[in-house]
Design brief:
Layout: E1 15-19, H1 23-35, E2 40-44, H2 50-57, E3 62-65, E4 79-82, H3 87-99, E5 103-106, E6 119-123, E7 126-130, H4 137-150, H5 155-168, H6 173-184
Parallel strand pairs: 1-2, 1-4, 2-3, 4-5
Antiparallel strand pairs: 6-7
The protein binds ligand SHN and 1,4-dihydronicotinamide adenine dinucleotide.
EC number: 1.3.1.76
Pathway: Porphyrin-containing compound metabolism; siroheme biosynthesis; sirohydrochlorin from precorrin-2: step 1/1
Pfam families: NAD_binding_7, Sirohm_synth_M
Length: 192
């Protein structure tokens, strides 16, 4: 049973702190920017890898802070991703974040995460997020590849057309729902 509650965040409205600038820090900032190119991100670490520096050079919304984490880094942040190679420090940062009611992900310790990052299938406006409840990130990555192949490319056109119908439909909410269900029933009708 997977009890995680999935939501889609508008990271451009939030300020995300990433602690750690190594391999995992790079993975996490890449995931953030690929999904939300206008995300406001501050990354703090004494050693910041060249790939992260390159990403930051071309993105003015990313601030790099080249030193160890300090508690004041949590000020005015909404979301925290902790990815240092110091487990004890990761745990301390998580506790400080919790003290401020900040949502926190600790890359190497699922038990200390308030949220997990997901594997993401993107087709235009469609986005499918996958979680294995932390059981196997590799399975999530593979399923992403399977779904990416399986989902048709023309979904974007279908979504645009449905949006046009949706914008056009007058009447009450129940009527709209009925009409949209009727038009899209072909998607779920069993063959024969
Ligand atoms: C719990 C979670 C917390 C979190 O990080 O948010 C977590 C935890 C851990 N990951 C570990 C390892 C790996 N993680 C990946 C990859 C991804 N990990 C991601 C998410 C999550 N990873 C969350 C659960 C997601 C879920 O519910 O399924 C993805 C989906 C999203 C992302 O990170 O952006 C991204 C795939 C993106 C994509 O490509 O689609 C790979 C594979 C690879 O890199 O190719 C490996 C190596 C192989 C392996 O172990 O499977 C370890 C052991 C560390 C160690 O051994 O030291 C832990 C800690 C532990 O499990 O104890
Ligand atoms: N969830 C996941 O997907 C995975 C998690 N991990 C775990 O993530 C952790 C980090 O791994 P890597 O990025 O490969 O390590 P790394 O050695 O490449 O980078 C560590 C980074 O943490 C920074 N750092 C160390 N102390 C700090 C402090 N006090 N404040 C701020 N930054 C600090 C370093 O400067 C460096 O930038 C490890 O504990 C590892 O077990 C590893 C693989 C996958």
């Amino acid at each position: 049973m997977n009890n995680l509650f999935p939501i889609f965040l508008k990271l451009e409205n939030l300020h995300t702190l990433i602690v750690g600038g190594g391999y995992v820090g790079l993975e996490k900032i890449t995931a953030v920017i690929n999904n939300s190119p206008e995300a406001k991100v501050t990354l703090v670490a004494p050693e910041i890898g060249t790939e992260i520096r390159e990403i930051a050079v071309s993105n003015s919304l990313i601030t790099l802070v080249e030193r160890k984490f300090e508690e004041t880094d949590l000020e005015a942040k909404d979301l925290v991703i902790v990815a240092t190679n110091d487990r004890v420090e990761n745990e301390r940062i998580k506790a400080l974040a919790a003290g401020r009611h900040l949502l926190c992900n600790v890359a190497d310790t699922p038990a200390h995460c308030d949220f997990y990052l997901s594997s993401v299938v993107q087709k235009g406006n469609l986005k499918v997020a996958i979680s294995t409840n932390g059981m196997s990130p590799t399975m999530a990555k593979r399923l992403k590849e399977v779904l990416n192949e399986a989902l048709p490319e023309n979904l974007e056109v279908a979504m645009e057309q449905l949006k046009a119908v949706r914008d056009m439909l007058k009447g009450d909410f129940a009527h709209k729902v009925d009409e949209l269900n009727r038009i899209t029933s072909v998607l779920v009708d069993k063959k024969n």
